[in-house]
Amino acid sequence: MSDTPVIGVLALQGDVREHLIALASADALARPVRRPEELAEVDGLVLPGGESTTMSKLAALFGMLDPLRGRIAAGMPVYGTCAGMILLADKILDPRSGQETLGGIDMIVRRNAFGRQNESFEAAVEVAGVDGGPVEGVFIRAPWVESVGAGAKVIAEHGGHIVAVRQRNALATSFHPELTGDHRLHAYFTEMVRAAG
User: Is the pTM of this model over 0.85?
Assistant: First the structure.
């Protein structure tokens, strides 16, 4: 891998464009990923926000579930925001019917824990390992992490709830950093991808 890692954004649903812009500003070569052959060409992957049940069903439809699970299990760096966090959880509390996860982080996640769409909010969140003060987090029907296993490290909390977790090459946040213009979390993830390469 050159000094400019190729980072994909799973482009089945959700705020793909905003992640592509944030990654490009963090000096990554960003591209949308919809098919297994596109997944094979990236050094790391972002799982965007959206609707986690719909995303898991679309991933199955596009033949992406097993390739995604395989790459994540093999250590490909991956970053999930909001619905992407749910996809990375090893376990979901009260999953919707037919909802599957990709796994990768030893955590139990509660869907829509911060409330409905009309209860969305922004908050400053201190994230361990991200310099320059708190990041602005946008919480939209956001999940939170009920608990983590021994391998997972809590890197941010808000209101007494876990909102950011890292386990080896997997990173997850309850909130959407791509909607704020503050691209430090994307830069942090880009560094994770470089280090893994």
Answer: yes
